[in-house]
Amino acid sequence: MSTPLIVLIVVALILVLMYNSLVNKKNQVENIFATIDTQLKKRYDLIPNLVASVSKYMEHEKSLLEEVTKLRADANKPNLSDEKKIKLDAQISSALGSLMIAVENYPDLKANENVMHLQRTLNEVEEQISAARRAYNQAVTDYNNAIEMIPTNFMASAMNYTRKQVFEIVEAERKNVNVKELFN
């Protein structure tokens, strides 16, 4: 076998490995995002039950309940971009957090068995979403590294692969928690 043929085979093998690596990372990102979608769908299915359970008790927080319902309706629209889904997820997380804090102000509601069950279920779903977000962010980081690092960046550019956005928390959740306020 001639030397140029061996070099050509080695280069072809490297290109195939780089191509397969990029496709694998892209598919991993899409797979984990689909997992997040599944968890978000579960959360969106729980929201109407939660709103129905608490609405009669929380007439003063009507705007908060309407906001949660509106965000859920927006999140269920078809053909949302990944960026829009990430933004809506952050908004719903913030609204649900406010709703759970508001529930604490209604002793009768807080003691209601159905509401307690919904809160526990929502907490479980939120933990599953959080785990899926961590997995997604790791997959996106691996993917973004691959499309930006040499030599795979050349092939990624040829394949029109672009950076993916990671999940980030909303600005309000970055602030320190004032424990003193929680006990007032």
State the gist of this model.
The protein is an all-alpha fold and 184 residues long.
Would you kindly provide a written description of the structure presented here, covering whatever features stand out?
It contains 7 helices and no strands. With 184 residues, it is mainly α. Helices cover 77% and strands 0% of the residues. The relative contact order is 0.13.
Rg over C-alpha atoms, rounded to the nearest angstrom: 23 Å
Identify the overall geometry.
elongated
> In percent terms, what proportion of residues is strand?
under 5%
Number of helices: 7
Oligomer: single chain
Percent in helix: over 70%
Poorly predicted ranges: none
Q: Please tally the β strands and state the result.
A: 0
* Secondary-structure element series: HHHHHHH
Draw up the topology in text.
Elements: H1 3-55, H2 62-75, H3 82-103, H4 107-111, H5 113-148, H6 152-158, H7 179-182
List keywords for this structure.
single chain; 184 residues; mainly alpha; 7 helices; 77% helix; 0% strand
